[in-house]
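Two proteins follow. First one:
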Amino acid sequence: MAVLDEYLKTQPPEAEPYRLRIAILIDLGREDEIIPSLKTYADQDNRNVALRLLLAELYSKKSNDWNKAQEEYNALLREGPNAEAYHGLFELLKKKGRAEEVLSMLDRAVAAAKPRDKSQANLSEAAHARAMMLVIGQDPELIGQLIPLGVTRTRGALGLDLLTRQFLAVLAARTKQLPAAESFYRSCLEEPHDLPAFLPQEQEIYSGLLRVLRLQGKHQEVVETCKAGLAKAQAANRLLFHTFLAETYSFLGQIDEALSEADQALQLADDKSRLDCQLRRARILAEANQRAKAIHECQVLLKDGTKPEDVHAIRLTLYGIYSTAHENDKAEEQLRRILQDFPDDAGAHNDLGYLMADQGKNLPEAEELIRQAIELDRQQKHQGANAGSEDEQDNAAFVDSLGWVLFRRGRVQEALHELLRATTLPEGDDPVIWDHLGDVYLRQGESAKARDSWSKAISLYEKERRRKLDDQYKELKHKLTLLQNP
């Protein structure tokens, strides 16, 4: 302690020496000295942000000192935006059951940063708003508290700024709170479209709303929103609306309308978006049972393709068309060509492994490919911008593939474990997973569980009007009938 105290006279800028002093005081049984001595050090070195954050952290651990903690955090934030200070303050407000204050703080900063009129933006408040958004976006518990508060405020007299609602919409969509996300996005579109803050956000607002509507299966509302956007949007790219209309009409089986919208999108496309539009048109043709024409258009694109990433996208589309047509050898050829050029493509590893597993061939290789897909996916998520977030969970489709290949190899208990795990992951409500789970249960002689799993799969298929026509759906209905009437 004596040596450390001598060192602390130099006022080191980092917090670790002070944390060491706290640990020594605890070892000496002198806990009562911790906060008073740290307060003295902080008063003597008021510019030491790390030290003041440590003091506020200690205050926040005792309910009797919560007000002191809040005062310290607020004092730090008056000096400038600080993500660590906001993190500590928001944790404290959560403990006090006052998440509403977080929402109000954010809204005030956002409103000042980009005012509704043509007055000067406040750059300091903009920096504070960015710091708050960063902290909120990394706190699932706080997001869960803010979304319902935001919905209430949006519907009430107090209201929220346009950009606050847009931020909450993004968070709600990311956390699968889709009705709330839709509500926020729709409220954004109710703003006067000539506001200075609205036009720069119009594209993102329409795009976000359309994605949320599609995820909820509200296909007719997607059509209505696109038509409204084409009629009155000022800054949004019309390509957005024609693209969504093409995909939605195809989903609904309205192929003539889908192709018309795909053609209009292609006319609007620039060099960057043209290939996407061409491949979308090919997929629509395949959906309309014009596979020969779809394949021909892809092969023409492949012949003209020079960029590796373009060739990759074309081959993926060809794989999908061949796979749907049950031309498995041709589908496999496309995937192997992709892996030659892109050996780190996790999706291609999974698709090839699953394709072979579903045919019951080359099962050891299929398992190895799928395990590589899962590992590549983990590595790429860990290296991504959101490393450490809940988004790092395994891909449910890849885990389903692993369960399926294990089942095909006769390792039923291992298959059950992986398939059950797949149902707990994001996107784990895919009917294919529950179909596979039913097969495993039937192999184990658990007919009731098999029936429940297949019934669940059917209900998921029937949420999507087009998918119930798939061969998988028809086979599933047949299996369930056989189980009920052996």
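Second one, unrelated to the first:
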Amino acid sequence: MPPKKAARFPRTARLLRHADFERVYKQGRRHFSTFMTVFYWPRPETRSAETSAGKMLTRTPAPNGLRVGFTVGRVLGGAVQRNRMKRRLREAVRMTRPVPGVAADVVINPKKSLLAADFADVLNEVKRAFGVIEQKLSAKATMRPGTATPHEN
């Protein structure tokens, strides 16, 4: 049997730029769980690039689906522990495969308890977080203008 090709976490599904992380932190919402805090921000339908004179250059469609990034601060441990947290989260996100219906940027901040948690528990928390994000963002999209928005945590 030929070796199985390794499943990857595709570059289009990753949050890579510092500005994107900052936008999620400053303008987004939060979801708290046992092993992590999840920040999310709905992406607009299209992005436009402008010159310094203010002229419109191009309109590029925003990628569909969730783009996920991870931040693990030094307070959570040494490099070995931080990298292990990121690997576990990356694999949980890859295995969860969030549905491409909601266009949003997501940043996951793990808690120290993630290292001692069973992987099945981490996987369930990631699934639950993506479900909450999808539910809240799809409910927000279906709300009519002028109505009060439901309280979000």
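SUMMARY FIELD: Residues 56-61 have pLDDT under 50 and may be disordered. The beta strands are 29-32, 36-42, 46-50, 56-61, 66-70, 104-110.
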